[in-house]
């Protein structure tokens, strides 16, 4: 089994490596500090599993996930995040992630998830499964932000975090005009008019 870890914090990568080395059959563990580095490694190597952080400095983990599944569909992607599971997990699973874990997961659960994913299965924690079931029972499974595309969702989070259109454009390598168009589309879909309203929505829904 060949595993690629993508996280911008070395201490996290070191910790994950230490845990994964306990797995029988692991022949290679490589590391990437951002999305572009991970994509470059995938171009030149064959990996069975990608452990992918959602919050990266260059591209969002969801964007990297989408690219990986388009170019290398056989790679099983296990998402890692500090963010609340239910808010991001469904979007990640729709983009064909094989599983979703929060970083406070016990090492035993991480090993279980990697093993299950390596066998072609899907993995979500029991707490996430319960949360999703509760939301389904309530009938409020679909939230406003669920209708946003991956790029719109990514830009919404950046706006909610107080980043300017110029900063967002620089980070995503797109023009300010394009970012502005995305913002207008997001506001229309979310039925909001101000950045402060968008930030409040994201806070209330634990997206930031």
Characterization of this structure:
With 208 residues, the chain is α/β, with parallel strands linked by helices. It has two domains: 2-137, 3-Layer(aba) Sandwich (Rossmann fold), CATH 3.40.50.2300; 144-204, Orthogonal Bundle (Arc Repressor Mutant, subunit A). The protein contains ten helices and six strands; from the N terminus they run βαβαβαβαβαβααααα. Strands 2-1-3-4-5-6 form a six-stranded parallel beta sheet, sandwiched between helices. Strand 3, helix 3 and strand 4 form a beta-alpha-beta unit. Helix 7 (150-160) crosses helix 9 (176-190) and helix 8 (165-172) packs across helix 9. The longest helix is centred in the C-terminal third of the chain and has 15 residues, at 176-190. The two termini are 34 Å apart. The relative contact order is 0.10. The model has no long low-confidence stretch (mean pLDDT 88).
Biggest sheet, strands in spatial order?
A: 2-1-3-4-5-6
What's the domain count? 2
Write the H/E string, N to C: EHEHEHEHEHEHHHHH
Estimate percent helicity. Answer: 40-55%
**Strands, total number:** 6
Q: Count the DSSP helices.
A: 10
> How is the CATH topology of the largest domain named?
Rossmann fold
Strand content: 5-15%
The gross shape turns out to be globular
Give the rounded overall mean pLDDT.
88
Give the C-level CATH assignment of the largest domain. Answer: Alpha Beta
């Amino acid at each position: 089994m060949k595993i690629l870890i993508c996280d911008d914090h070395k201490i996290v990568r070191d910790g994950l490596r230490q845990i994964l080395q306990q797995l029988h059959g692991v022949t290679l563990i490589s590391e990437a500090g951002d999305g572009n580095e991970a994509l470059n490694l995938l171009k030149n190597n064959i990996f069975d599993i990608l452990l992918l952080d959602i919050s990266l400095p260059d591209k969002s983990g969801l964007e990297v996930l989408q690219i990986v599944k388009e170019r290398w569909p056989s790679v099983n992607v296990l998402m890692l995040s500090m963010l609340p599971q239910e808010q991001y997990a469904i979007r990640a699973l729709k983009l064909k992630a094989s599983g979703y874990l929060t970083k406070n997961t016990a090492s035993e659960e991480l090993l279980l998830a990697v093993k299950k994913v390596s066998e072609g299965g899907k993995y979500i924690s029991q707490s996430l499964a319960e949360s999703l079931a509760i939301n389904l029972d309530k009938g409020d499974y679909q939230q406003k932000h669920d209708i946003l595309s991956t790029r719109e969702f990514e830009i919404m989070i950046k706006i909610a975090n107080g980043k300017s259109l110029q900063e967002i454009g620089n980070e995503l390598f797109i023009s300010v005009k394009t970012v502005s168009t995305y913002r207008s589309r997001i506001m229309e879909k979310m039925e909001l008019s101000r950045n402060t309203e968008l930030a409040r929505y994201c806070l209330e829904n634990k997206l930031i």
